[in-house]
Amino acid sequence: MAKAFILPFVVYLAGMSLAAKWSDQFPLLYSLTVLATLLVVIWSWRTSKAIVPHWKIIDAVLVGLVGIVYWIWISHWHLEATLTAGFPEWMQPSPRVAYDPFAAFSSHLAAWGFVSIRLLGLAVLVPIAEELFWRGFLMRWIVSEKWESVPIGTMTAASFWGVTLLFTLAHPEWFAAAGYCILLNSFLYWKKDLWKCVVAHGTSNLALGVYVLSTGHYELW
User: Fold this and answer.
1) 76: helix, coil or strand?
2) Within 49-169, where are the H helices?
3) Which residues contact 140 (CB under 8 A, 6 or more apart)?
4) d(Cα 68, Cα 60) in Å, to the nearest integer?
5) How far apart (Å, rounded) are the C-alpha atoms in residues 139 and 153?
6) pLDDT, the chain, mean
């Protein structure tokens, strides 16, 4: 059922778009987005059967850590800004909200409460929603319109690079996103296991959250 693979991604993306548009209400809108995505992810997980949890994840954790080190390193070069400096504004990548809860909230307790919600979305829900969509659905759909009969991890040049291109354009950090997507596509091709991609993605996002909170580089989330 395509909806089980697509809906979590669409719900999260729509919620984040609204939260970015009305940034003065970001905590409320983000929290509602997390709640809505959580409900859809629970339904999707039970319906799709594409993600089968297990504990053989050491390789996935290592891939996730390698991927986020690359993401953080290349993001600090701001190559997208250099590449698109002369382009019209609509052709330039939109920056992230860069919401700093410790500057926005007067209470540290409230700030940490929102951080907990932010990390739930970043490290748990986003990896599930994105992996279901990008590598669980779209990659197989590009291979064949009868995508449900295509085994997880099956790829063609068109599906590999098509997903890489679209994943890249969906993120403001183009060069980081392109390299990271190539890494996860290759990992899926090797392991044929969508759960390992979820774990790798979740490890990356959790590490990114820790990095952002430790360094104050809120522009990365």
Assistant:
1) coil
2) 58-75, 79-83, 101-104, 108-120, 126-131, 139-143, 157-169
3) 147, 148, 150, 152, 154, 159
4) 12
5) 8
6) 96
